[in-house]
């Protein structure tokens, strides 16, 4: 028996997919599309900024633009204690065009181009530097332009000694000392950790507070640290996830393609609660929040998908359905083909799988829809064998038909559009902003 894994949905998303307006959008677009909901983004953002304020922490919450390309999020970030994280010239230009001040933009990424460094300096962005040659290039640009860039030095976490990102602990002291001879405003330090555990983030952040104090003794400002992303989300119910993981087998997946690694679709704490857990974690009997307050150090966070949690879903019109060949222990099932590509649910293109159940939405006329529940995998409309949106056999209430819609819930964080391309000359799925029962195209996303 294949186990279902229903997604946790926000009220707005449930109302949207139950509305006939979804079919109106499908007719207007004539292909797949993404639905986004800025008020949910704003609510997520308010909860995280409020979590910092509740601990009396001076901080900044950056939306990592790579998590989702919708322009609608940017206007929500034009508020106090909020900014945008970018890693390319087009992302920086988009953030500026969205009303974000340069002082509220963080620039990250490895080995940034001179064009990106120059533009970031011109707008007084906060630049995370990954290695020494990049720092030297930035200092040279600073001399030529007579600008003083604001910089964070990214450290390589001790738990990830083979990481290609950041300065190792042994070299960081020398680099900090050299910054005193360069035209650099050293504002502090940053790191990124894999996983979603609040404890290692809090403990490494506490170490960086001490590094800030040492850097001040050399004359640097050093008044902020960035703990990067990894703020967790829960896509499904705890019990459903436990049941799924306990029984998971290759036979639940078309062609036995059971991915070795997937996102932990249930976890706790999440969102603002995880931020609170980080702030309250104690090292040597002192909470991180207390260390930050005593040292006058601000905490910067890039919550990534946690800001768009529940703020979007993806819709794929059904093109056809057929019986799949089966082998071994894999149950009899269908292959449903949808308009669009698996690049629009991009976990699949990393050898992984977006596991929450897609939801079949049918026209209101129920005639002839009495064949009962079916199992199906879901394929994209390209000629590639591996263009599969859902390898897992999911249960739908009836056999999908041409004109039905298949909704993938809560895709706005990384799944929705991270790897999309115009393969087969198919247009990118547009983004649609949902407002009660009305809708409009996201800026720059009209088909």
TrEMBL record:
| TM stretches of this protein | none
The N6-(pyridoxal phosphate)lysine modification is found at 66
Keyword Glycoprotein listed? The answer is: no
What residues form the catalytic site here? 383
Output one GO MF annotation: diaminopimelate decarboxylase activity
What is an annotated GO biological process for this record, any one?
A: lysine biosynthetic process via diaminopimelate
- Which Pfam families has this protein been placed in? Orn_Arg_deC_N
Required co-factor? pyridoxal 5'-phosphate
**Orn/DAP/Arg decarboxylase 2 N-terminal domain location:** 57-246
* Keywords recorded for this protein, A-Z: Pyridoxal phosphate
Q: Which InterPro entries match?
A: Ala_racemase/Decarboxylase_C, De-COase2_N, Orn/DAP/Arg_de-COase, PLP-binding_barrel
Recorded hits in PANTHER family, A to Z, give: DIAMINOPIMELATE DECARBOXYLASE, GROUP IV DECARBOXYLASE
**Protein name per the record:** Diaminopimelate decarboxylase
* Organism of derivation: Gordonia effusa NBRC 100432
């Amino acid at each position: 028996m294949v186990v279902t894994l229903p997604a946790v949905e926000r009220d707005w998303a449930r109302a949207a997919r139950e509305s006939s307006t979804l079919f109106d959008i499908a007719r207007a677009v004539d292909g797949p599309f993404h639905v986004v909901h800025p008020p949910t983004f704003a609510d997520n953002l308010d909860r995280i900024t409020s979590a910092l304020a509740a601990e009396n922490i001076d901080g900044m919450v950056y939306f990592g633009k790579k998590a989702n390309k919708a322009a609608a999020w940017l206007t929500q970030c034009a508020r106090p204690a909020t900014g945008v994280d970018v890693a390319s010239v087009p992302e920086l230009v988009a953030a500026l065009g969205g009303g974000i001040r340069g002082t509220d933009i963080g620039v990250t990424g490895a080995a940034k181009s001179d064009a990106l460094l120059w533009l970031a300096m011109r707008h007084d962005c906060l630049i995370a530097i990954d290695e020494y040659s990049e720092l030297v290039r930035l200092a040279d640009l600073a001399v030529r332009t007579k600008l003083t860039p604001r910089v964070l030095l990214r450290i390589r976490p001790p738990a990830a000694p083979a990481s290609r990102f950041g300065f190792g602990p042994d070299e960081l002291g020398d680099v900090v000392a050299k910054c005193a001879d360069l035209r650099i405003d050293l504002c502090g330090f940053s790191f990124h950790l894999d996983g979603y555990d609040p404890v290692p983030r809090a403990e490494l952040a506490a170490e960086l507070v001490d590094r800030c104090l040492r850097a001040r003794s050399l004359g640097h400002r050093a008044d902020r640290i960035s703990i990067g992303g990894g703020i967790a989300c829960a896509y499904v119910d705890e019990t459903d996830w436990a049941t799924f993981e306990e029984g998971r087998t290759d036979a639940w997946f078309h062609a036995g393609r059971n991915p070795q690694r997937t996102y932990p679709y249930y976890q706790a704490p999440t969102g603002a609660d995880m931020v609170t857990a980080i702030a309250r974690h104690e090292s040597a009997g002192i909470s991180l929040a207390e260390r930050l307050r005593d040292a006058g150090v601000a905490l910067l966070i890039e919550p990534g998908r946690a800001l768009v949690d529940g703020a979007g879903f993806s819709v794929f019109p059904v093109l056809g359905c057929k019986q799949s060949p089966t082998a071994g222990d894999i149950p009899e099932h269908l292959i449903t083909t949808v308009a669009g590509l698996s690049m629009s649910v991009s976990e699949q293109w990393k050898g992984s799988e977006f596991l929450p159940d897609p939801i079949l939405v049918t026209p209101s006329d129920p005639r002839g829809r009495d064949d009962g529940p079916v199992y199906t995998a879901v394929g994209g409309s390209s000629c590639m064998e591996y263009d599969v949106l859902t390898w897992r056999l999911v249960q739908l209430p009836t056999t999908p038909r041409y004109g039905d819609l298949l909704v993938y819930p809560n895709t706005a964080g990384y799944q929705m559009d991270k790897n999309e391309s115009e393969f087969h000359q198919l247009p990118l799925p547009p983004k649609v902003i949902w407002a009660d029962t009305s809708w409009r195209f996201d800026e720059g996303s009209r088909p």
